[in-house]
Structure formats: structure tokens, C-alpha cells
Design a protein that fits this description.
Layout lengths: L14 E6 L8 H4 L4 E7 L3 H10 L4 E3 L2 H5 L5 E4 L6 H10 L3 E4 L7 H14 L3 E3 L7 H11 L6 E9 L35 H11 L3 E5 L20 E8 L4 E7 L8 E5 L2 E6 L2 E7 L7 E3 L8 H4 L7 H15 L7 H19 L5 E2 L6 H5 L24 H4 L2 H23 L11 H27 L4 H13 L2 H4 L4 H14 L8
Parallel strand pairs: 1-2, 1-4, 2-3, 4-5, 5-6, 7-10
Antiparallel strand pairs: 7-11, 8-9, 8-15, 9-10, 11-12, 12-13, 13-14
């Protein structure tokens, strides 16, 4: 049973926090007051994000100049800048004498990791990684039972972070189209999903208390339509196989696929656990394959009243809590700089392994200066897509291509809604409950005026824009996903209305009464 404690620390001291990156960063703002943190400054290059922050936090200092923010009277910085920049941005804050809470991942190259570790050690400041997925009630319950020996030794685990985010290549987190409109997102448009490995690997590490020691991965060739980077794109599937320090194996699966999933399965020598959408936590205990399978109702070990309702299943609260606790009390947090390295490096080396057709890599322990030294000059990054001009070329006329991200945002909504309904309609005769098709049909009907406008705008762009990846993804979304010819065929909307009327009158076979 979780203990009830609503005041987290026995001190009246407050932490003055600046947020660098007002997209993701502001999602933590509401939690700060619960753990002794005052948000007193914010920094972002995007004007409308600064304006929103000012409206919501009128007493805070706001700027687009990080040096100006670091010059303020602040104790710590939440680094929520672009993912590949996290290491250098964290180092900049540490050198300014600030504690750092960094969004994932900690760094993008091995040499950056070496520089970051050594700067944290030199500075004496607190560094935490904002890895939130381990801190669900189920994962924290499993970690406690694992330490007690309930599951024995880790044999094998399968953890997934499958999250299809096509639209975020073309919009900010708040849904606004990227500006200027011919550009695409700084990193979500091209980064290989191996680099984003912490949401699936992190929970395994927290639960078992083990660190990864070796990684291997094979290349995966196919991607979803509508992703601007043709190779190594985030819209693909990226599994790796990882050896843990206790000898067990982990299949770490990331990607943008046609089935979002956060399935988690653990096999120990004495028991097993599974988490999926329909069951928060199910165990099989008894050190054999045929033991009883029973459901658990997990609870957080403490502070449930504060954690409940916060983002990512409570994980965002615990990230802020542990960061504040380490600053205020000196108690080490789970994701210090060395754990941050342990969870970040497997993604970098898994990507490298896949590029080399399955070459396995030992994962160095950056606690050891000798192991760090072997990687201090390894600044080999993933090849980046030209986010500023890669869609249409540097010579493209902004008056022609400047609506690209707005059109792609609309296509991501409308074309996907059409494809969802159309594909389920193809198998509707075999549905166990045909009325379950209604929500998809009704959503498409609501979107039809928006769909027609988006399709016309996309066709105009295709006809007038220069050849390049931008035209390719427009065609993919309009023709392949959105089925332009069928969707805009005369009478299509009227037929959809009749289909909805028929579904509303129909009773499912399982209906009673």
C-alpha cells in the first residue's frame, strides 16, 4: 500500500528553474511547485512558444537568448532543446554553474558523451536525465519486487516503444506547422529510432538494476509513407538485441509502425511479468511455465497523491521529484550522468551495428576513465537530413512551397482518416461487431470538407513545386495513403453518409434485448 505523504521534502528551500525549450519543456511546469521548484525563466527561438509561455507564466523572464537566461538568478535548467543538441546545451549550462535536468537522449555521439560525463564530474553540479517511462506504478512495483528476489535472475525481456509520429515532422508539439513552411522539424524528420532507445530500455534497467553490456542490430529496409528522410528514417522499425550485466537478453524495439505499442514482457528464473494495453500488470509465478497467471493492481511506493494525473503515467512527476530531491537533500537520483550514459549508448551503437549489417558492439562503462578514453574522439553521427532546404532545394521559391508544412499537417490528419475507414470497410463483412466501424466512418465524414481542401492544396503543390523529397511525401500521402481518386470521386461523401446510416440501424450479433 502506498504511503500517504503530500509534502515531499523536509525543507522550505526552493529551486529556481529556467526552461530551455518551451515546446516539451513547459509540460513539466505544472509539476514543479509540487516538488519545491519555481519556474522563473524560459528560453526558446520560436516566437509563438515564447508568447504562450509568457501568457501562462507572466512573472517569468522570457528570452530567445540562452546567455541572457543563464545570467538570471536561477539554480537549474531544464534542457528540452533539440535532441541532437542536448549534450552541448547541458555542458553550456553546467559551465554557467547550473544544475541540469536533460530531456532524452543525453548525447548524440560517443565523444559528446565523454565530454558531458567529464563536465558533470568537474562541475560538481547535479545532472539528471528526464527518462520518465520507468516510473509508472507497474514498473516501480516490479522494481521493488525484483530487488526482493521474487523473479530470480533475468533470462529475457521484450520492451517496446512503438510510436508513429508522422505529423511531428511537420509541426511543433503544440500542432502548429513548422516555420518557415518549406522546412521540416529539426530532428524528428530524420533521426533513426535507435537513437530514441531510452523509453523502452530504461524500464528494464530500473526494474532489474542491471546495465547493458553488448548490443547488436540488423538493418530494416521499409518505412511508412510520408516520411521525408528516405533512409534511416524515424518511420521505420528498429529492434536491437542487448546483453545485460547479469547475463540476460533484452529485445529493445523502437519504431514508427502501423501498430503503436508499449508491450513489456519480463522472464526471470522464478517468475514472469507482462504489461500491455488490456492489462496493467500480469504475473506468472512459481519457477515454471505453467504457474498461475494473475493480475496485479500496482501502486506507487509513496506520494501517489502527487504523482497521480501527471504526464506519461506519472513518470513526469517522478523525474522532477528525483531531480529536486538530489539538489535539496543530496540523495542520488536513478538517472544520474552514468546511468544516462548506460541508457543512451546502446542506441548509438545499435544504429552503428545496423549500418554494418549486424556487427556487435561492447557497451563501454563511462564510469571508468580508461573506457571513456577509447571513445573521446568518436564524433561519428548519423547523416542528417537538410531540414532547412532538403524538401525542395535551396533555390525553391518560398511563395510556392511556403505552405508545405501546413498542407502536410492537414494530409496527416485527413489522409490517415480516409485510409483507416477505407481499409476497415474492406473487411467489414468479417467484423465480429460491425458497428465498431462507426467511429472511423463518422470521423471521416466530419473531416470531409477539410479533406477536400487539403487534397486540392496538396495537388497544387505537387504540380508547382520543384522535384524533391517534399513532392515525394506529398504524393505518398495524397495518392498512396489518401487515395485521392476514390476519395474525391463524385458521390463519395453521399455514399459514406448512407453507410453511416446503415451502421447506426444495424445491431451487432452480440447485442441483447
Amino acid at each position: 500500500m502506498a504511503t500517504r505523504r503530500t509534502r515531499p521534502f523536509a525543507t522550505n528551500r526552493r529551486i529556481r528553474l529556467g526552461i530551455w525549450g518551451l515546446g516539451r519543456g513547459v509540460h513539466f511546469r505544472g509539476l514543479c511547485a509540487k516538488v519545491g521548484i519555481d519556474v522563473v525563466a524560459g528560453c526558446d527561438l520560436v516566437p509563438h512558444l515564447r508568447q504562450r509561455f509568457t501568457k501562462e507564466t507572466p512573472e517569468a523572464f522570457v528570452t530567445d537568448d540562452i546567455d541572457a537566461m543563464l545570467a538570471q538568478d536561477i539554480d537549474a535548467v531544464l534542457v528540452a532543446t533539440y535532441c541532437p543538441a542536448h549534450a552541448d546545451d547541458a555542458i553550456r549550462c553546467l559551465r554557467a554553474g547550473k544544475h541540469v535536468l536533460s530531456e532524452v537522449t543525453a548525447f548524440h555521439t560517443m565523444a559528446e558523451g565523454v565530454r558531458l560525463v567529464e563536465e558533470v564530474e568537474r562541475s560538481g553540479k547535479v545532472y539528471n536525465l528526464a527518462e520518465n517511462y520507468p516510473f509508472s506504478a507497474a514498473n516501480m512495483w516490479l522494481a521493488a519486487r525484483w530487488r526482493e528476489g521474487l523473479f530470480g535472475k533475468l533470462m529475457y525481456a521484450e520492451f517496446e516503444y512503438l510510436h508513429e509520429l508522422r505529423h511531428l515532422q511537420y509541426t511543433y508539439l503544440d500542432g502548429s506547422p513548422i516555420q518557415p513552411g518549406h522546412a521540416v522539424h529539426n530532428w524528428r524528420s530524420w533521426i533513426d529510432y535507435h537513437y530514441y532507445c531510452t523509453h523502452s530500455l530504461g524500464p528494464v534497467m530500473l526494474i532489474t538494476g542491471e546495465r547493458p553490456t553488448r548490443v547488436v542490430s540488423l538493418p530494416a529496409g521499409n518505412r511508412l509513407e510520408g516520411y521525408i528522410a528516405d533512409e534511416n528514417a524515424i518511420g521505420s522499425v528498429n529492434p536491437s538485441l542487448i546483453t545485460m550485466s547479469g547475463g540476460g537478453l533484452v529485445r529493445n524495439l523502437m519504431g514508427g509502425t502501423t501498430h503503436d505499442s508499449h508491450l513489456q514482457r519480463l522472464w526471470g528464473t522464478r517468475g514472469a511479468a507482462v504489461q500491455h494495453a488490456a492489462c496493467p500488470l500480469e504475473l506468472r509465478l512459481g519457477a515454471n511455465g505453467g504457474g498461475p497467471r494473475l493480475e496485479i493492481t500496482p501502486q506507487w511506493p509513496e506520494l501517489a497523491e502527487l504523482a497521480g494525473g501527471s504526464g506519461h503515467g506519472g513518470g513526469d512527476f517522478w523525474v522532477m521529484y528525483y531531480f529536486a530531491r538530489q539538489i535539496l537533500t543530496g540523495t542520488p537520483a536513478p538517472w544520474d550522468i552514468h546511468a544516462a550514459c548506460d541508457v543512451t549508448i546502446p542506441g548509438i551503437l545499435a544504429y552503428r551495428s545496423a549500418c554494418e549489417n549486424g556487427q556487435a558492439y561492447d557497451i563501454p562503462d563511462f564510469r571508468d576513465p580508461r573506457q571513456r578514453a577509447a571513445w573521446k574522439s568518436d564524433d561519428r553521427p548519423q547523416t542528417r537530413f537538410d531540414t532547412a532546404h532538403g524538401a525542395f532545394g535551396a533555390d525553391a521559391d518560398p511563395s510556392v512551397v511556403g505552405t508545405f508544412t501546413t498542407v502536410m499537417k492537414e494530409l496527416c490528419a485527413c489522409a490517415q482518416a480516409y485510409r483507416t475507414y477505407a481499409d476497415w470497410e474492406r473487411v467489414s463483412a468479417d467484423l465480429a461487431r460491425p458497428r465498431e466501424l462507426l467511429p472511423s466512418a463518422e470521423r471521416l465524414l466530419r473531416l470531409y470538407p477539410q479533406l477536400r481542401a487539403a487534397y486540392r492544396a496538396a495537388r497544387q503543390l505537387i504540380d508547382n513545386a520543384p522535384e524533391g523529397p517534399g513532392r515525394r511525401v506529398l504524393r505518398e500521402m495524397l495518392e498512396d495513403v489518401g487515395d485521392e481518386k476514390t476519395a474525391l470521386k463524385r458521390g463519395a461523401e453521399a455514399r459514406l453518409r448512407r453507410r453511416i446510416s446503415g451502421l447506426r440501424r444495424r445491431k451487432d450479433p452480440s447485442a441483447r434485448g
